[in-house]
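Progress narrative, work stream C.
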Amino acid sequence: MEDYLETIVLLSEGDKAARVTEISKARGVKKSSVTSALTKLAQEGLIEHERYGQAKLTAKGERIAQDVFHRHETLRHFLAEILKVDPEVAASDACKMEHTVSPVTSERLTKFVEFVLNRPQGEPDWLKNFNYYLEHGKFPKECVITCQRESDRKG
């Protein structure tokens, strides 16, 4: 049901409502499935929907939809931009993961992604080293030298 709310928020602009046909195309499901889901969402007070009409999120539905969308985007950014997962795979995986991540983990992951991607100093060295490792299957020489120096200082 969260996916339907997220789809409605993505298809809606401002006060515009989403049509069953648009939701059906976006979700890749039959119109009858959309109608059934919309009926359930309306019963739960998450949307306003009349038979054969458009679906419009209620305030409660909007909050839930925005939360799902936010979790999805955070996970997608983490997977695609930090772990360098193919963007299509990242989007698909984020869609699956967004429903199981706790609010605490989601908030912490959001902060992590913001911290890494918005650093005033640019891309951190550890991320550059990770990208090198992904590409070459081994640590870059600079990383090995730095790690050895740190180990020598501690030991």
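Work stream C, second folded protein:
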Amino acid sequence: MYCDRCGLNFLPKQSVCTRCKRVPTRYWFQFMSLVTIFAAVLCNTLLGLFLLPRLAMANHGRILFRGWYWFDQQFALYGWVPLAIGLLVWDYFVWKEARPKVKGWFTRKLLTFSLAAGVAPLLPWWIPAGQPPGQFLSMIGRHPGVPVLLAWGVVLVVTILLCIDPESRDYLLGHGRTLSIVSTSMLLLVLTMTVVGWSLMTY
């Protein structure tokens, strides 16, 4: 890649230009997009905890906010599944030629383990290979939220590992322009729904 300020070519592993010591614009796009996604998810989480339960019972817009509340609950339980599958597909088709052997093997094993642990309780009991151990089922019975938290933790750890390294982050996020559009749209959607919901509550 090259520096958009002085035009010097440098390796993607380097976070700054070796000549002008400036961070490339694409890295700023990537960083701000990730921050915007985090802000949108945080705002949506706070709304789901404090505002959406009241809006779901309101007379105005009940169907809309009930659907939003239901989506938040389902995404909290199963949202890690498409993210893990997407990272595995990206690993196989995009990062296949450039990934380090140890790092690629480690991230694939973590994602595969999280998917296997999440799918195993859903398999019928009469499938011997799919029947999970009794200790695992008893743990789920005592702490039903633990597998979901572990699965989200695995996806988060893998994402952090990929985004810390500039080269793998560049493969995953690209130039950052598309991601910035998606992240800004998410934040604007959450803010718009918040304003609409607040106006309905005060109506």
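The CA atoms of residues 92 and 149 lie 26 Å apart. No further action is required on this item.
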